Amino acid sequence: SDSPGGFEINLDHRKLKTPQAKLFTVPSEALAIAVATEWDSQKDTIKFYTMHLTTLCNTALDNPTQRNKAQLIRAAVKFLETDTVCYRVEEPPALAELQKNEWDPVVAWAEKRYNVTIGSSTSILGPNIPASTKETFVSHLASYNMWALQGIEFVITQLKSLILSMSLIDRHITVEKAVLLSRLEEEYQIRRWGNVEWAHDYDLCELRARTAAGTLFVHLCSESSTVKHKLLQD
């Protein structure tokens, strides 16, 4: 239901609350519907670990780590220093080539899209990311609200990459592609040695579900109502 603070969720005529007992209100109707769908799909026991959107809303409402916007942005940009797609191997040559073929285009896209220098390195220290690149990402992320930033950080944590996360959130690559690129080394080993573990399939599905939920959360929290009304009219 619509309330002054946003949209509330009622479960069996009870208002949903956060772990810190705040009223569970979300900024967009689409997000409220998505959260309600998560609750509806729960059966006899409520499995919170399957409810990524609900968890992200709780984090945004309760802010358990008590960080402000600048701190959230800094934490996200810090991932550039250890970004998955910037660390390259020299051996084995087949993996080095796979990394170059798969990761270089995404890095090139990001450099062009944000007008920055990123680069890559085979050194254990990783590439030397220029301060201006970090500043550019800080100001880009500042254009998002606190809710969206919680979602962005969640996606970055899944993919271990700011570059893949921004490519995904900017709709340059799909969830499947982003997850695949974040796990290139594992995928290379599986192609080489065969898929030995059923656990791999479970991990992959879980990572896709989390990444998809985080991306959806960012989009639902950052699109303005005017854009939505325009889309509905078109």
Sequence-ordered SSE layout with sheet pairings:
Elements: E1 2-3, E2 6-8, E3 10-11, E4 14-15, E5 25-26, H1 29-40, H2 52-62, H3 69-78, H4 93-114, H5 131-141, H6 146-159, H7 162-169, H8 175-182, H9 184-193, H10 198-222, H11 225-233
Antiparallel strand pairs: 1-2, 2-5, 3-4
Helix pairs in contact: 2-6, 3-5, 3-6, 4-7, 6-7, 6-10, 7-8
Commentary on this structure:
There is one protein chain. The model is unreliable at 225-234 (pLDDT under 50). This protein has 11 helices and 5 strands, in the order βββββααααααααααα. The radius of gyration is 19 Å and the shape is globular. The protein has 2 domains: 2-62, ATP12-like; 69-232, ATP12-like fold, CATH 1.10.3580.10. With 234 residues, it is mainly α. This is ATP synthase mitochondrial F1 complex assembly factor 2. Plays a role in the assembly of the F1 component of the mitochondrial ATP synthase (ATPase).
